[in-house]
Specification:
Blueprint (H helix, E strand, L loop, with lengths): L1 E8 L1 H16 L6 E7 L2 E5 L17 E4 L6 E3 L3 E7 L9 H18 L5 E3 L2 E6 L2 E11 L2 E9 L19 E2 L2 H5 L5 H19 L3
Parallel strand pairs: 1-2, 3-4, 9-11
Antiparallel strand pairs: 2-6, 3-5, 6-10, 7-8, 8-9, 9-10
């Protein structure tokens, strides 16, 4: 498993890096890779006719990108740790549901590293602290090689979500590691914890 810290990158640049790695992974030119980064402020939404989660789409404060993942609108920006997983699911059983469940498990274990009891909510993808959403997950698959991944809120500043209905869930409350811990946690600190938990998951289960 290769980890790459990209720092803060624009969404188009991050997408281009992903697409190049997916093509290389399909040709078996690189191994499974996890990109860890922050984005400049942006909204993304899956390929769907329903854009109601963007609310006033023409007057949003940041650009919008429609991408090949599932799900409604979400926000990416500074203070959020983004993880893009470029993995070959062929040796992992081509089980997309287990893959999503496993990403949730990794992030739940990470939350526990910071003293936060996080879990799932029935029928809703992501990681939650009671009824507050800590992390969003949306993946794409090309010839059984994955792309996209998760957005884990780290900073206390969650104002980027104010202009949308996150994940299309009316009345949802977003939260972050720093808010739940009551102290400032850096994205770099969260990234190191994520690397540890993903590495553990692979070494113990030979799959996420």
């Amino acid at each position: 498993m290769n980890f790459r810290w990209l720092g803060r990158v624009s969404y188009p640049d991050g997408l281009k890096i992903q697409e190049n790695l997916v093509a290389q992974r399909q040709r078996d030119e690189v191994g499974d890779t996890v990109l860890l980064l922050e984005h400049e402020p942006v909204y993304t939404i899956g390929r769907t006719r329903d854009h109601s989660s963007l609310r006033a789409e023409d007057s949003l404060p940041h650009p919008v990108y429609e991408i090949n993942r599932g799900g409604q609108a979400t926000f990416h920006g500074p203070g959020q740790l983004v993880g893009y997983l470029i993995l070959d699911l062929n040796p992992l059983g081509r089980d997309l549901h287990h893959y999503l469940w496993s990403i949730e498990s990794v992030l739940m274990r990470l939350a526990s590293d910071f003293g936060i009891e996080a879990g799932r909510r029935e029928g809703l993808t992501g990681v939650w602290v009671e009824n507050r959403k800590l992390a969003s997950i949306g993946v794409g698959v090309r010839k059984w090689v994955t792309m996209h991944g998760f957005g884990l809120n780290v900073s206390e500043d969650l104002s980027g979500y104010d202009a949308i209905t996150p994940c299309g869930i009316a009345g949802v409350t977003m939260t972050s590691l720093s808010r739940e811990c009551g102290r400032t946690i850096s994205v770099a600190e969260a990234a190191e914890a994520v690397k540890k938990r993903i590495t553990e998951a692979f070494s113990q289960e030979v799959k996420l």
